[in-house]
Amino acid sequence: MPRSLILTPMHVVFSCLAMFALAVLALAILSLDHQPLIQVDRQPPESGIASLKQILDSSDLINTPTKPERTLIATEKELNAVANYLLRRTLGDGAAHVALRYGTARLTVSIPLPLNPIGSFANIRLWLHEENGLPIIGRLTIGRLTIEPEYAAWMLNMIIKHSPFTQSYGLAGKRIKSLRITPGSIFLTYSGNHHPIPDHRTIADATNNELLSIYQKKLVEITRQPDLKQRISLSALLQPLAQFARSRSNQGHPIDENRALLLILNEYINGTALGRLLPSPIDAPAPARHTVLLNGRSDLAQHFIASATMAATGHDTLANLIGLYKETSDANNGSGFSFTDLTANQAGLRFGKMAVNSTADARKLQDVVGQSPHESVYMPDIRSLPENLNSTEFERRFGGTNTPAYQQLMQEIQHRIAACPLYNRRMNEQSIDR
Predict the structure, then answer these.
(1) Does 277 reside within a domain?
(2) Is the same domain home to 207 and 146?
(3) Report for 21-30, 77-86, 310-319: range of highest mean pLDDT
(4) Single pTM value for the model
(5) Which of 56, 95, 168, 256 pairs as cysteine with 40 (C-beta 3.0–4.6 A)?
């Protein structure tokens, strides 16, 4: 008579683990391929940045005309350049291809993986359909696995939710009015946003007129001081404004105070017409005009505050792309590629993120900046950083923006920024010698 099989808890655990391992192996076999669906097209990254700028310009997103709706136009070639740029910037390698047909767009991505016997490439295809004038997620394939549209849409939302583009994606979804896909081009109509710095909430909701008016009046008071010189350090404005924000944050919300501070300061330094952003004009006199400098340069002050304001209003990714596009464009046609400008952009992004990251960080920024007149608290040393590089010299020294040489210098810039007292948490916890 056969002995009956007795399953102990340990047997059950090992059986479940074995079944799970087999399921993962089966999924890997079905998901991975030995060859890519598309080959890598080694276009220079600058072409992707330029294409993105071209797409944004098609709807005048950067210049923001005052019209309720805008139509963004993108060609298949531009979409391919942008898709490949974003893929390589995010993952470091891979290839992407966008194909447009009547009513349908198909995105194909091939991502190289470490050599292994199962498959060295992840090949992904996603279909987007035009349905009643609106975009609808179609099916998704990963290798030989097919995922139905409803599950594909859920997966895409989860991926974007944990990506740097989550705020932009959520904002865009609410504003899309219609989509038309034709062979060679897409036409996306969306509701306009009347301010040049996109926000994840409307400016009226995030920062009301009364609060902006309070900071405008404070800026007037600071700039009209009789002993203030014509050319002033950025800290000559930031320090007293941060002190003012800190005093108000005892009863108010420090994040809202910081956002209002940056919006007003950006208007003053970069000439943003803030009156166009709000339902009613600010009831405050104009501040006295001064040339604001950072490290002795007005352009660095402009870069820093513009990036800080974009980060504080939820668009640091766009600020990154626009800043990099400007420098690569300057390398080809203008004053030359400048790592000092990029440093000001990156430091500004760090400043703006910290200003609104949390109540604790918002107050810490007010304390540290309010206690020190020194720019080195929030802006690193830029000595020895290359600038004024034309395209030939930039290519000779760095070979593009995805090369180890370029990435090494960008890491050095990030290390310098992280060492600033404002961003260095260890130094934040100590008293800073002013």
Answers:
(1) yes
(2) no
(3) 77-86
(4) 0.59
(5) 95
